[in-house]
Amino acid sequence: MKMTIILLLVALVIGACRSENGALSNKNEIIESFPVLLDTTNSDGFNLSKEIEYSTWLTTAHYGIYHIGLIRDTLYLNPFIGSPLPPIPEGGNQQDDTNYEMAALPFEKYYIDWLEEVDYTYAEDAEIQIRIDNSKSIYNAYPVWLTNLDTDTTLIGYGRHLPLFMEAIDSIGNWKPIQEPFVYFCGVGLNSIFLPPNESVLTLAPIFKGNFKTKLRVSLGDNHSEEFEGYINYRQFESIFNEDGQYKLAYKRELKE
What we know:
globular; single chain; disordered N terminus; 2 helices
């Protein structure tokens, strides 16, 4: 039996208004509130940050896509956008499989074949509003909205990844990355994801744990989310590699423990 998880996400920011069809109008305005998010997939697909929440080194970011389009009052989370559909759940039936397929179909129009030539701006160079709600968590992660505030369509990612990364303030007050943007080893065959003006993408930002309290933000090029407080391990500012591209001795010792 499928389980529905309803999370009401509210951010008190002055700005947006609603259109007659229920979509949020966000033309060059701040999103006033987050929608109600529904999960009816009964899937572990959202628990992507569990393995890295106790990270002790700089990590690779993994920001998937869980919705694309206009922001509405209520949205269904979808962990299968851009991914192969999962097998029918144990005890499930063909209707379950059909539901998965129907959930993914509306988002296919946001993908461009890798051989197709387009003249879109990359998201790192576009005006992208990044909103994060750290008042509620979904499977060890905070919901994050990226909205295209440019007048032109932009390329927001590839496959099922967005080129986001998280930054934190170090002990002397400087913003430094604690994540590296995800990069595919081979881009052949990967479809591009585009985002029209005033439309949005929903992703999830991991909640780290550690003994260093600081301020954090999610970044994409020169676009940054609002700051929020959190805890990290201070060594998350450090890479596991030295200047010669070799594993650091401290990291090698940890692998043996």
